[in-house]
Amino acid sequence: MPLMTRRKLMLAGTGIAVAALAPRITVVQAQTTPAPAAGPFKQDPLPYANNALEPHIDARTMEIHHDRHHAAYVNNLNGFAKDHPQIAQAPIQDVLAKLGELPEAIRTGVRNNLGGHANHTMFWQIMGAGGGKPSGDLAAAIDRDLGGMEKFQTDFNGTGTRVFGSGWVFVVVTRDGKLAIEPRPNQDSPLMDGKRVLMGNDVWEHAYYLMYQNRRPDYLKAWWNVVNWNKVAERYAAAKAGTLGV
Ligand SMILES: [Fe+2]
Predict the structure, then answer these.
(1) In 10 A of CB 63, how many CB atoms?
(2) CA dist., res. 53 & res. 144, Å (int)
(3) Which phi and psi (to 5°) does residue 183 adopt?
(4) Residues of the chain with pLDDT under 70
(5) Could you give the CA distance from residue 118 to residue 87 in angstroms, rounded to a whole number?
(6) How far, in Å, from the CA of 48 to the mean position of ligand 1?
């Protein structure tokens, strides 16, 4: 084959390869790295390594969950805050308790994304490796209000299993320290009803699907291994002191 012809064929081959790869690379980048929108809402890094909760929650799930799902809520909030800066000028729990006062154009968006931001901020905080057991005041409140640890876990898991589609199962806490289990759909939060959240588990499929697929009850059961009871106890004390935020 003459040299020039061979070279043209090689170049043509390269061109085809690049053209075939280019759109795929673009799509993958768009999925993995949402462009950060600068603004007043910030996402804290995970307080532990992505693999810290293994074997109960895998590193890949934690990475996708924190770096993409939660990050997307924060990103969306910064988008809303450009035209509606008031949503960042009050504590998150106060904005969520007064969603009805927001302009209708952003009300649903703030409900979903600020609810998601609050829920996930709490969620990362109350997990950790080797979480121990509740003690002191918190253990006494679980005995008094939730029928003891075994009944609490059974009821919490059952409530989480019965959430239809995506949502959360929470334990709410009053100023006098009384506890109750409450589910919510989507990214709704008891904060929207002026209540305080002691703890909660995310039962969206994105929280467990890679490891557990459709077996949400297995995920709910395994999740207790990664609850950081020291953090939950801190939140309990803050709730009684009136200083608990999200
Ligand atoms: Fe989530």
Answers:
(1) 14
(2) 30
(3) -90, 160
(4) 1-36, 131
(5) 13
(6) 17
> How far is ligand 1, taken at its centre, from the CA of residue 118, in Å?
11
Ligand 1 geometric centre to CA of 8 (Å): 52
Structure tokens of 51? 């693999």
Q: CA 67 to CA 242: how far, in whole Å?
A: 31
**224-234 pLDDT, tens per residue?**
999 999 999 99
Alpha carbon 172 to chain centroid, angstroms: 17
* C-alpha to C-alpha distance for 56 and 50, rounded to whole angstroms: 12
- CA 41 → CA 36, 124, 149, 186, 246, distances in Å? 11, 17, 36, 21, 14
Edge-first strand order for the sheet with 179-185 is 179-185, 167-173, 196-202
What are the structure tokens assigned to 90, written together? 């009050």
What separation in Å is there between the alpha carbon of 18 and the centre of ligand 1? 36
Distance 38 CA to ligand 1 centre (A): 22
Q: Which of 243, 245, 241 has the alpha carbon at shortest distance from 137?
A: 241
Say what the pTM is.
Answer: 0.86
